[in-house]
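hey can u check if this looks right to u? its 146 residues, i copy pasted from the old doc so theres a chance i mangled smth
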Amino acid sequence: MRLTAQDLRDMNILKYYRLTRKWVCKTYGLTDADLELLIYLDCKKRFTRQEFIDGVYTMSWDKNRWERLRKEGWIEVWRQRNRTTIMYSIFKTSFKCSQIISRIYRILLGEEDLPTSDRSVFYNNKSYTDKVYNKAIDDMIKDKER
């Protein structure tokens, strides 16, 4: 069975995408472009450095994005280059990255709520913006139609 645009609209899957994206970015220290790129790469399963570069064309320019994502453990090597038979390395998103993206999907589908504990980095009321987002999280949790 193939999903249609109306099916996705009826599911309200994108209703709280912005709030969920902001929560992930602040909690895990990513930028919006990093998160969207990781979602794109996770859909590809395995990719080369050139495919990463192709995915970055629509993102904001960040010269250090590749090394930063690798160093922080978001991207890992799946198959190493050996200079004789394998001409280039193949990469994949890490287990940590896959778990976070799965959690985003669960939150958007309403299977899971955003955390509201005091330990949550996002839920601390330090600025006006934090208070606004906390109110939005509370409204999202109370929404029975998501």
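The longest helix spans residues 95-109.
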